[in-house]
Specification:
The structure holds 2 protein chains of 2 kinds. Chain A is mainly alpha-helical. Chain A folds into 2 domains: 2-58, no CATH class; 64-295, MetI-like fold. Chain A contains 15 helices and 2 strands. Chain A has helices at residues 2-9, 14-40, 57-63, 66-86, 88-98, 105-113, 120-130, 136-143, 158-182, 187-195, 200-211, 213-228, 232-237, 251-260, 265-290, and strands spanning 43-46, 49-53. Chain A is globular and about 75 Å long. Chain B has 15 helices and no strands. Chain B has helices spanning 2-12, 30-57, 80-88, 91-122, 128-138, 143-156, 163-167, 174-185, 189-197, 202-213, 215-231, 234-239, 248-256, 263-283, 285-298. In chain B, helix 11 (215-231) packs across helix 15 (285-298) and helix 13 runs antiparallel to helix 14. Classes of the chains: A mainly alpha, B mainly alpha.
Chain lengths: 297, 300
């Protein structure tokens, strides 16, 4: 009896009890569906009824759909665009805000962070109107004597429009990431550089950048994963998610539509598997840069 | 943006002590300071105006939302859109659903993450590495891969349209787990040892020693997860089809997916979805920002 008691309440069983709730949910709603997704992509489905194995048929059909290439192109273009804007600009702003040269810097940090508090649904509501032909942006551009654009009405401006939205939504968040990285840069390095007469740019390149490289890589990973999962904006910025010439169609939206508008679960899962493979490849490349060791401590 | 960078560079180049060090600042930089202030004021306006415009337009008829009628001064305001929003749509229900679902999700997620994080940080047990690495690896899987199998799963379990289906599948949150584990790694082993000597069981230890001491971390994670659910669309969109069960995000998404969109009502709804969050943020600003930074860097 005593032994049973100490087994239940002692440190042998306890860790398993502690991880059990997380692990059960994790296995039931992440591990199982992941494996299941692979199986579904090889089966024919009618509604939620599995009609059996059809090999790579779903993949063949998916590859013959011109929307697939379009969706992958748009998603890659979007991800790349957000990386090119949402890493250097927030980094520069974080460095400036941390420099002590900006008066009332907290006010600016808060102002730039506010968009991060709006849900992507709200963001899409706002920008569907702001980016429309006679919306706020074009009115503002006209006031400033700049040419206005039919942002949401041309195929070629669809992805740039979403990049504008992303820049608005995420700049403040990335500033926080970079600022928390900058805290770890020892001040005496800057003082040493100052004594050596290094320029601001040189100091940035030789001290700041190498020291916050982990943060930059982290933001990079986060932006890539986020970019590949782009869904809400293309779904809501255009009526019924129909952007002109599918210019704004993303992979995630294509999966959602294939599954829940066309009720083709097999093909939807096939696209999901392709997306997962793409992310896997990119992650492996990043892991090489990152080094997996960093995660353990 | 490049001109901004160049400007700043030109102004700081060649100065012995530099912009980056807050300690030693050179004299006579009022020009730079003024320039930076102007840049940040303009930037801040660009970031704040869309939110301000949303709130303002929600108090105006639909005709003032577009074109020449756009006006950023607070004139001609009326609560008409709000009255109609509550009369013509089940917005009040959506709001309540968002609150209960967000709180339920945050509670469940924080609970399972705190327990699992504690186990992974403070015990050595068989399977620990396997668990840790597979959860880490799962981070790379896009959620879109899971929507079809998860949907079939909840259909088979008879959970469609249910509160449980909305919150449980998302509760095993890898970032939450890493955040908690990281936080617990720094928890005093002496304190745990002392409690064990006093005869506390492992569960008592967790409940009475660990939890009270990690309240800030629990609060941070709770706020972030509640916000996460409040802002989530994809999964609730799949779970809920009936108008009365939806959270606000799904309700608003449905309102915008109509042939004739009522932008006036939509803006009122969007404003109501945002203002409570901004109010909470202004009250708990430090927690929000620190939480963002920590969950960000916690995974590193």
């Amino acid at each position: 009896m005593q032994r049973a008691r100490s087994f239940v309440f002692g440190s042998k069983l306890a860790p398993y009890v502690f991880v059990a709730p997380f692990l059960i949910i994790f296995i039931a709603f992440r591990v199982v569906p992941t494996i299941y997704a692979g199986l579904i992509s090889l089966d024919k489905f009618q509604g939620t009824d599995d009609l059996g194995f059809v090999g790579l048929q779903n993949y063949q059909k998916v590859f013959s759909n011109p929307a697939l290439g379009k969706a992958f192109n748009n998603t890659l273009f979007y991800t790349l665009g957000t990386l090119l804007i949402l890493i250097p600009i927030p980094l520069l702003l974080a460095v400036l805000l941390d420099s002590g040269r900006v008066v009332k810097e907290t006010v600016f940090r808060v102002a730039l962070f506010l968009p991060a508090l709006t849900s992507l649904v709200v963001v899409s509501v706002i920008f569907r109107i702001v980016l429309s032909k006679d919306g706020l942006l074009n009115v503002g551009l006209a006031e400033a004597g700049l040419p206005s654009n039919a942002w949401l009405e041309s195929a070629s401006l669809a992805v740039p429009s979403m990049i504008i939205v992303a820049a608005w939504r995420w700049t403040g968040v990335n500033i926080i990431y970079f600022s928390s990285g900058l805290v770890n840069v020892p001040r005496d390095l800057y003082e040493a550089a100052a004594i050596d007469g290094a320029s601001a740019w040189r100091t940035f390149r030789s001290i700041t950048l190498p020291m916050i490289q982990p943060t930059v890589l982290f933001v990079l990973v986060l932006s890539i994963i986020g970019g590949f999962q782009l869904f809400v904006e293309p779904y809501l910025l255009w009526p019924f998610g129909n952007s002109p010439g599918n210019g704004g169609l993303s992979v995630a939206l294509l999966i959602y539509r294939t599954a829940f508008n066309n009720f083709n679960f097999g093909q939807a899962s096939a696209i999901g598997v392709l997306l997962a493979l793409l992310i896997l490849i990119v992650s492996i490349i990043q892991f090489r840069l990152f080094g997996g060791r960093r995660f353990e401590r | 943006m490049t001109t901004t960078a160049d400007e700043v560079r030109d102004q700081t180049i060649g100065r012995p002590s530099l912009a980056l060090a807050s300690g030693a600042r050179p004299r006579g930089i009022t020009g730079t300071k003024a320039g930076l202030a102007v840049i940040f004021i303009i930037l801040s306006l660009l970031f704040v105006i869309p939110i301000y415009w949303m709130a303002l337009s929600s108090l105006r008829p639909q005709s003032s939302i577009f074109g020449a009628n756009i006006n950023l001064l607070p004139t001609g305001l009326t609560f008409d859109n709000y009255t109609r929003l509550f009369r013509d749509t089940p917005f009040a229900k959506w709001f309540v659903n968002s609150v209960t679902q967000s709180l339920g999700y945050a509670t469940l997620t924080v609970a399972v993450c705190a327990m699992a994080g504690f186990a992974l940080a403070k015990y050595r047990f068989r399977g620990r590495s396997l668990i840790f690495w597979s959860i880490l690896g799962s981070q790379m899987l896009p959620f879109q891969l899971l929507i079809v199998p998860l949907f079939i799963e909840i259909v088979r379990l008879g959970l469609v349209e249910s509160y449980l289906a909305a919150i449980v599948p998302l509760a095993a949150h890898p970032i939450g787990l890493f955040f908690m584990r990281q936080y617990m790694l720094n928890f005093s082993d002496d304190l745990l040892a002392a409690a064990r000597v006093d005869g506390a069981s492992e569960y008592r230890l967790f409940w009475s020693v660990v939890l009270p001491n990690i309240r800030p971390a629990l609060a941070t994670l709770f706020i972030l997860f509640a916000l996460d659910y409040w802002n989530n669309l994809l999964w609730p969109l799949i779970v809920f089809r009936q108008v009365d069960h939806m959270p606000m995000a799904v309700g608003l998404a449905n309102m915008i997916s109509q042939y004739k969109v009522s932008y006036d009502l939509l803006l009122a709804g969007a404003t109501l979805a945002t203002l409570p969050i901004i109010a909470l943020f202004l009250l708990f600003r430090k927690t929000f920002m620190a939480g963002t930074a920590v969950t960000g860097t916690g995974v590193q």
